[in-house]
Amino acid sequence: MPAMKRSITPAKAASLIPDGASIMVGGFMGVGSPNRLIDALVAAGKTGLTLIANDTAMPGKGVAKLVTARCLSKAIVSHIGLNPETQAQMNAGELEVELVPQGTLVECIRAAGVGLGAVVTPTGLGTPVQEGKQTLEVDGVSYLVEKPIRADFALIAARQSDYAGNLEYALTAQNFNPIMALAGGTVIAEPEHIVPVGMIPPDAVRTPASLVDHLIERAL
Amino acid sequence: MDLKERIARRVAQEVQPATLVNLGIGLPSLVANYVPANAGVFFQSENGVIGLGARPPEGMEDPDLTDAGGGFVTAVPGAAAIDSAMSFGLIRGGHIDMTVLGGLEVDAQGRLANWMIPGKLTPGMGGAMDLATGAKKVVVAMTHCIKDRPKIVESCAIPLTSARPVDLIVTEMAVFQPTPDGLVLLEHAPDTDVAAIRAATGAAFEVSSGLKEMSLDAP
């Protein structure tokens, strides 16, 4: 059985993450994001972080708080359309934004996590996404070669964890979370509930405990 | 009937029974309103649900059950919740029968541009590039012009979403099918004719020998 984990506070978790680190953060338009961890990064006044996430949410929600608090120097995301602050900082040259097609983004994160050297995809061919990238022909069909995307830390949200760190997710709050749990150098999980080992049936575990380095303590 | 409702009603006629369909946010999402509930159609939302249902009653919303725009939804019986890798595996892998996407421009080959206007607006592509590349059938639902400027043009001035031509273009004026020889006008709206469509379209097109009037009945 995996060792029981000690839970840590969001502030303690934030202290593990240095300025300038790269962080993957789960969530889709703010749904399924580790909100207490995000608040702790803002409270700690982090700067120069590279964010890897699906989107930059909308002001006041999820990772948008990192944008507003100017914690970021770069964002690698698929969509910024609902966050005017991201666009303003990008246009002012204060925030570098790299836009990646959503399916390519998640698959490049997965590739990094599962030991694959590249993602070979038709998405983005013949568009600006292709610029500067290698193409590959396989059986007469052209593809774009996209490199794996990894990060120093993966910050993920889960519906519940057991004491060992096995994670179960909720509905559309899954999104990038189980994929990012594979691809962060250090994985910090923020579950809504923490339950005794055995309460999450093995079939329901989407992220095995061995991938999780730290658990955020329960919310009061 | 406003223009968007008219477009949505026409696009809904393209939705086949018992298929899996992805609707983009904005105008395309209106299509669901005109698909019969008993058609056995499942809607996929790329944030991770197959079997998207209507907005829940006030006070019954689940913050963990949303559509791709972050709005509260329900899940229909038989729904499945999936992660983003599965979601885009389905999209890129050709498992989505049809997607409906909004458009900023479409060129004479039927290639869509809908994710940025350089120097003005950069929402990002989100899932649109994967959908336009991987869905079995791609339908563009958009108004014919923006401020009297045609959105169907010889060559897009803004970056493409995919090099793959779409399968059908539906506007409030017309239905076009892109072919290797260019655009073909299949239908005109009841209140317009070919001459008016030519005047409002920035690309050359052929008129189908079977040209007919667009039906605005819900299927």
Largest sheet of chain B: 10 strands, mixed
Which ranges of chain B are low-confidence, i.e. pLDDT below 50, for 5 or more consecutive residues?
Answer: none
Secondary structure class of chain A reads alpha/beta
Shape of chain A: globular
Largest sheet report of chain A: 9 strands, mixed
Order of helices and strands of chain B: HEEEEHEEEHEEEEEEHE
Quote the beta fraction of chain A: 25-35%
Could you give the count of β-strands of chain A?
Answer: 12
> What is the CATH fold-level name of chain A?
Glutaconate Coenzyme A-transferase
**Global Rg of chain B:** 17 Å
Question: Which bin fits the share of residues in helices of chain A?
Answer: 10-25%
The number of distinct β-strands of chain B equals 14
**Poorly predicted tracts of residues of chain A:** none
CATH architecture of chain B: 3-Layer(aba) Sandwich
Which helices and strands, and how do they pair?
The complex is a heterodimer of chains A (220) and B (219).
Chain A: E1 7-8, H1 10-16, E2 22-25, H2 35-43, E3 49-52, H3 64-68, E4 72-77, H4 84-91, E5 96-99, H5 102-113, E6 119-121, E7 135-138, E8 141-146, E9 151-162, E10 167-168, H6 177-183, E11 184-195, E12 214-216
Parallel strand pairs in A: 1-12, 2-3, 2-9, 3-4, 4-5, 9-11, 11-12
Antiparallel strand pairs in A: 6-8, 7-8, 9-10
Helix pairs in contact in A: 1-2, 5-6
Chain B: H1 3-12, E1 20-23, E2 42-45, E3 49-53, E4 74-81, H2 84-92, E5 98-101, E6 105-106, E7 112-113, H3 128-134, E8 137-141, E9 145-146, E10 149-150, E11 168-170, E12 174-179, E13 182-188, H4 194-199, E14 205-213
Parallel strand pairs in B: 1-2, 1-5, 5-8, 8-11, 13-14
Antiparallel strand pairs in B: 2-3, 3-4, 6-7, 9-10, 11-12, 12-13
